[in-house]
Amino acid sequence: MLAIGLSRANDREDRNRLSNLEQTAATIALARPDDASRTRETRSNGKVLGNATLQALSWLIPVVIVVLWEALAQAGWLSPQVLPAPSKIVRTAIKLTTSGSLLNDLGVSLLRAMAGFAIGGSIGFVLGVLVGFSRLAEAVIDRSVQMIRAVPFLAVLPLVIVWLGVGEAEKIFLVALGVAFPIYINTTLGIRQVDPRLLELGRVQGLSTLQLIRRIILPGALPSILTGIRYALATAWLALVVAETIGAQSGIGFLAMDAREFLRTDVIVLTIVIYALIGVAADTIARWLERRLLAWHPNYGAAR
Amino acid sequence: MTFQFSRPLQSSAAPAVVVNGLRRAYGDRIVIDNLDLRIERGEFVALLGESGCGKTTLLRALAGLDPIQGGRIAAPRRPAVVFQEHRLLPWDTLWRNVSLGLNLPDARGRAAAALAEVGLGDRLDDWPRNLSGGQAQRVALARALVQQPELLLLDEPFAALDALTRIRMHQLVRELVAKHRPGVLLVTHDVDEAIALADRILVMRDGRIAFEHRTDHTGKVARTDLLAELGVFATHALV
């Protein structure tokens, strides 16, 4: 692990050196604008295109697709039954929001996701910490968890419906089930992967077991735990879509199934877009957490 | 295991560590056999030896990192250790690293003083990843000295550094040891490093101390003798 760390450090130095070289090259190019070959060299390594330009460029294809979609719909080449125009979907969104039902359904869905995430995440984290620290806990717990994990969690849905009906409990249970495993696995893995030489240092410095956990083991496991959280957020959302599609009386999934009954393609597409947006939001939160908590890590944050 | 950290002894003549009849074995293989060693406070001892002669094993036993199979180690207090790798916690700032395990008031102030001693007094809130190899090892040295150890164990701490940085580190270590006066045991494979730093040089062979030499830091005669003890009969050696 340290070898990797060292080579990363070297990479960083190399990159710094490279960027110094680039700067030097740029300075020379500025000083001698007539030297065409040098100017081309500087341009070819992408420095001329700033980050803002690249950021804007990355939006080019999505924007073109939406514009094209709108144009085709307006021209009547796309049937509104198959795929309504983006402008129509926006109007539907506004109408449903002002009538109040959309926000209500959105709130219900988010609440389910958060409740399931909190329950499943806590269980996964506690079990992961136990198994990560103790060989005994691993012997007792790990095989059972791995066996349950081998079952695709959506496959147990019919059984869950028999047990819990199609109410809130069923939906929250399914989300919790999907969330628990990625958190469990990554927590265990993170704790196991803490550099044994740092643990040894902790002993040399006279840390108590509690200090060892707080100062060395948990921070060392944190990158892995956060990876687990990111996976879990995606799984939570997937579980919710499936759970809400079956026998819900409210929520985004209910909105979609209800719209299907009346062939309201615009509402169906709107719910898909909402699922996508919330997925992006969840990922953004997870990344923000990584940047904040892993500011020290060369592969994440940008702390100085 | 009879390893113990007894109460600090008040006399300035008190030894930093006394080892009697130490025995260390991995299964049937005996690595250290009936070894005696005494290091005074303020004394700088270098331990030379070929790879696998048991010198790092001895240091780890003194640090209390490994169990021993016989004999007795008496040290007044927990020793401080600097390893070959800096072992800084990448998630903690420099002052947090230096004060790791320091259960005293004003940890930040003490860490700041220790960092100032190694020339990094302006980098308290910086991160380990922004340090060069030599700087990181200086922080590791500050982390060891902030504990005010009576015994300082150095496990090839300069081996991974480039030649110039190593020379600077030698000077720094000499100054700091002269100031804080802990007993020092330096494990190294570098004869010249041992001559430059140590008051006393031990050569370890087959789990015992096979040769002992008090240096005058000039190293003229010692170098050839020490190399011979290490099994190197250099005909092209530097004079």
Structure overview:
The complex is a heterodimer of chains A (304) and B (239). Chain A has 304 residues and is mostly helical. Helix content of chain A is 80%, strand content 0%. Chain A has 2 domains: 1-50, no CATH class; 89-293, MetI-like (MetI-like fold). Chain A has helices spanning 2-31, 36-44, 51-57, 60-74, 86-99, 101-133, 135-150, 157-164, 168-192, 196-204, 209-245, 252-261, 265-293. The longest helix of chain A has 37 residues, at 209-245. By secondary structure, chain B is of the alpha/beta class. Chain B has a domain at 94-148. The interface between A and B is medium-sized, with 26 and 22 residues.
Brief summary of the model shown:
The complex is a heterodimer of chains A (304) and B (239). Helices cover 80% and strands 0% of the residues of chain A.
The greatest interface between two protein chains, and residues involved on each side, is: A-B, 26 and 22 residues
CATH homologous superfamily grouping of the largest domain in chain A? MetI-like
| Order of helix and strand elements from N to C terminus of chain B | EEEEHEEHHHEHEHEEH
Low-pLDDT segments of chain B: 1-11
Q: On the 0-100 scale, what is the average pLDDT of chain B?
A: 87
Helix content of chain B: 25-40%
Q: Separation of termini of chain B?
A: 46 Å
Strands of chain A, total number = 0
Summarize the main sheet of chain A. Answer: none
Structural class of chain B: alpha/beta
The class by helix and strand makeup of chain A works out as mainly alpha
Tell me the number of structural domains of chain A.
2
- What radius of gyration of chain A results from the CA coordinates? 26 Å
Q: Total helix count of chain A?
A: 13
Task: Chart the SSEs and their pairings.
The complex is a heterodimer of chains A (304) and B (239).
Chain A: H1 2-31, H2 36-44, H3 51-57, H4 60-74, H5 86-99, H6 101-133, H7 135-150, H8 157-164, H9 168-192, H10 196-204, H11 209-245, H12 252-261, H13 265-293
Helix pairs in contact in A: 1-2, 5-13, 6-7, 6-9, 6-11, 6-12, 8-9, 9-11, 11-12, 11-13, 12-13
Chain B: E1 4-5, E2 15-26, E3 29-40, E4 44-48, H1 55-62, E5 70-75, E6 80-82, H2 94-98, H3 107-117, H4 133-145, E7 151-155, H5 163-180, E8 183-187, H6 191-197, E9 200-205, E10 208-214, H7 222-229
Parallel strand pairs in B: 1-5, 4-8, 4-9, 6-7, 7-8
Antiparallel strand pairs in B: 2-3, 2-5, 9-10
Helix pairs in contact in B: 3-4, 4-5
